[in-house]
Amino acid sequence: MHVKIEDWKNGWSGISVGIDPDEINRFIELLKMIRENPEQHFHVSSDYKGTGGVGDIEVFIRGENEEHNMSLSGRALAPGETLNE
Fold first, then answer.
1. Which of 3, 26, 48, 80 is the most interior residue, by most CB within 10 Å?
2. Residue 38 above 60 pLDDT?
3. Helix (H) and strand (E) counts for the chain?
């Protein structure tokens, strides 16, 4: 897995997560685990090598009193491609 932060230089940042094909099933299992047991959570943690970056990402079920501030989107579109294709 590879994670990086992109500074958009406007007060916002992007986080990219590159996952290996053999990690996909484990990620799905962990998502299913928190869906079935909302009191649980899991972490995507760094190897802490290098000069810095993302140390940890915690994944959990959003609490009812926590605002939505992100959303999911679909697959990436190629240049000139529309959703109807």
1. 3
2. yes
3. 1, 4
